[in-house]
User: Which sequence fits this backbone?
């Protein structure tokens, strides 16, 4: 039989149980229907919350001679014969009675209105008057009709897959179908009928109290979930129950439907468990991906495990491959005394269950530590630990550590629970692998950084070597002038010509000597400042000042090569935040390259201006030298690439310049044409 048809027949049976011949509804003071039996619903189409006068008479307002109103006013039973339009359009004669229903304090809660269809009775009375001889035949036909209806509902009753129970007002089981006998675990119906009350089936007294309160207060309970106890079994059930009332509103019994939802409940619990575990894995995955700090990742993961799985303690060990030892990396939920033990903090591979887990790369579960053969079991027993699971941490097929999950109470690690812990272990193994890769990458970066610093220092020394001759010439000229004037004044003194008349000349000599000496001092000071290797400290600097300081170091070289210097510095340029020594070194390299490109003289132009890109200052160093070919332009910033003659350069200068500018979040570009010259454009970010 189809489910839909079965449910329809179940509904018909309920209608029979509630009342075969009467239409019954409950009405509140607002004339709203709060309860209706199935016969009423099927024939008149009423629904909870609808108005009685709308359903009974299809009126927009209450009846003038309202029986419900009378019963609420005087608390008495009232009745009347009325013509009612049925749902199918048929007009039926009804005997309508309104009965007030009171609570324990005598207050009228609602009015129960019952209607008896007397249409057939009226018709029979009329026929009896006309055809007295056919009375017995008519009665037999009616009895046969009722018998067929009874058989129909009995079939539905017995074929239902839910437990259908009819009880008296005290809960004593009067009737139950075969499905109910089987659901409750009894062999025969008689054993069930021997129960004192259906209420004995409730496992939890609190659930029984809530059920009784609801059914007595509202007269109807639908899909109330409770744990029931049958013979030899307990199960989860959905209970639907409603009261059976007589014509004056007294409870004469209950109709109860019980559906066994144990399998459905189990399936729901399994789905919830899977969802919870997926949420845990997602949370752990998010924790792992949010940080590369291994210590932070491990401790956060342990917190998630203890939060969601309610594990008492968790330890995570990582494998030291070189020493063949497991070291405790993170832990929660254990005493300081237990953790302080040397064999807890570190364990050789193969020693105890912990060491065997990493050796075999297989999960090991110990439900009873006291009966285990682990040589370290006594320490865990003293700590109060009972059940323990050892989960290998694996990444790319290789073990990287072990996770130990323990409980302080007896706990059974099921197969799916262990599988779930294994999935977490794989996540942790991936985190360990990522952290190790990050550490290796960080070390490689540090090594590269140190190598780059070494290259910068090497290039600086090379630059200093190039400047040595130039600086020597630069210093020799003022020193020669100073020496000449000193000797001249000595002559004047020895010959007695150091007189009052010569004081003007002597003063001029001393002034020249002072100026030339100061010039030597500035050259030496700039050279020393440039040659030192200070710590990289970012400070606010002026681009104009950096250009001027650098030009001092190369000015003599420009004079010797007959190179004309052109400076175009925009006023009020914003400051830049940089390591001034490194930027000065980059500028010196660019200026030196420009000077070398113009061995037969030319023009060196230095421009400082606002950049077209907001937040930057541009410095353009251009020359009218030999230029760079289009092919070589692609490689000029690569280390060890050079276009100079052998012995005149190693190809690190522009590579160092590019590295310095990049570390300052700036950029450098070059434009060049053979035999026309080159222009290097350096952009550096401004302060603020």
Assistant:
């Amino acid at each position: 039989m189809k489910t839909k048809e079965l449910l329809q027949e179940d509904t018909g049976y309920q209608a029979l149980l509630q009342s075969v011949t009467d239409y019954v509804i409950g009405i509140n003071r607002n004339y709203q229907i709060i309860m209706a039996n199935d016969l009423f619903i099927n024939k008149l189409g009423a629904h909870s919350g609808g108005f009685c006068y709308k359903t009974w008479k299809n009126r927009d307002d209450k009846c003038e001679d309202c029986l419900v109103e009378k019963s609420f006013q005087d608390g008495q039973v009232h009745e009347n014969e009325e013509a009612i339009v049925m749902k199918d359009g048929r007009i039926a004669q009804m005997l309508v009675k309104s009965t007030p229903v009171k609570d324990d304090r005598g207050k009228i809660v609602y009015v129960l209105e019952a209607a008896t269809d007397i249409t057939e009775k009226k018709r029979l009375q009329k026929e009896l008057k006309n055809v007295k001889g056919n009375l017995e035949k008519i009665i037999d036909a009616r009895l046969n009709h009722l018998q067929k209806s009874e058989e129909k509902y009995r079939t539905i009753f017995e074929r239902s897959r839910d437990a259908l129970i009819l009880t008296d007002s005290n809960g004593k089981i009067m009737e139950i179908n075969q499905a109910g006998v089987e659901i409750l675990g009894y062999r025969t119906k008689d054993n069930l009928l021997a129960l004192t009350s259906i209420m004995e089936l409730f496992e939890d007294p609190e659930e029984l109290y809530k059920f009784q309160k609801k059914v007595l207060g509202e007269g109807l309970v639908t899909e109330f979930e409770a744990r029931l106890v049958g013979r030899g079994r307990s199960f989860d059930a959905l209970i639907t129950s409603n009261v059976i009332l007589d014509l004056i509103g007294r409870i004469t019994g209950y109709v109860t439907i019980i559906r066994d939802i144990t399998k459905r409940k189990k399936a729901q619990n399994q789905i919830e468990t899977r969802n919870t575990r997926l949420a845990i894995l997602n949370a752990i995955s998010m924790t792992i991906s949010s940080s590369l700090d291994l210590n932070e990742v491990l401790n956060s993961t342990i917190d998630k495990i203890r939060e969601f799985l309610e594990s008492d303690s968790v330890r995570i060990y990582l494998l030291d491959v070189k020493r063949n030892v497991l070291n405790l990396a993170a832990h929660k939920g254990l005493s300081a005394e237990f953790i302080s033990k040397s064999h807890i903090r570190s364990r050789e591979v193969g020693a105890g269950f912990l060491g065997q887990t990493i050796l075999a790369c297989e999960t090991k579960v110990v439900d009873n530590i006291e009966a285990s053969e682990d040589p370290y079991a006594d320490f865990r027993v003293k700590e109060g630990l009972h059940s323990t699971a050892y989960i290998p941490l694996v990444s790319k097929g290789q073990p990287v550590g072990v996770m130990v999950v323990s409980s302080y109470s007896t706990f059974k690690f099921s197969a799916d629970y262990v599988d779930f812990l294994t999935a977490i272990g794989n996540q942790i193994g991936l985190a360990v692998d990522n952290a190790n890769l990050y550490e290796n990458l960080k070390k490689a970066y540090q090594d590269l950084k140190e190598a780059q610093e070494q290259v910068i220092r090497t290039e600086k020394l090379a630059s200093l070597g190039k400047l040595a001759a130039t600086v020597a010439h630069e210093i020799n000229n003022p020193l020669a002038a100073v020496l000449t004037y000193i000797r001249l004044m000595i002559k004047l003194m020895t010959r007695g010509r150091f007189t009052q008349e010569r004081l003007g000349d002597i003063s001029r000599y001393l002034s020249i000597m002072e100026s030339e000496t100061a010039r030597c001092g500035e050259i030496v000071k700039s050279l020393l400042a440039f040659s030192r290797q200070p710590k990289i400290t970012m400070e606010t600097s002026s681009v104009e000042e950096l250009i001027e300081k650098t030009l001092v170091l190369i000015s003599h070289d420009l004079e010797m090569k007959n190179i004309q210097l052109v400076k175009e510095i925009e006023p009020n340029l914003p400051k830049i935040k940089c390591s001034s020594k490194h930027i000065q070194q980059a500028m010196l390299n660019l200026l030196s390259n420009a000077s070398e490109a113009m061995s037969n003289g030319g023009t060196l132009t230095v421009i400082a201006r606002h950049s077209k890109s907001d937040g930057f200052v541009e410095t353009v160093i251009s020359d009218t030298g030999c230029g760079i070919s289009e092919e070589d332009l692609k490689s000029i910033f690569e280390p060890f690439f050079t276009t100079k003659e052998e012995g005149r350069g190693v190809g690190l200068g522009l590579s160092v310049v590019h590295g310095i500018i990049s570390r300052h979040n700036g950029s450098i570009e070059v434009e060049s044409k053979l035999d026309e010259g080159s222009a290097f454009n350096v952009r550096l970010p401004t302060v603020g």
Remarks:
- Residues 160-260 form a domain with the Beta-Lactamase fold (CATH 3.30.450.20).
- Confidence is low (pLDDT under 50) at residues 1-17.
- The first strand starts at residue 22 and ends at 27.
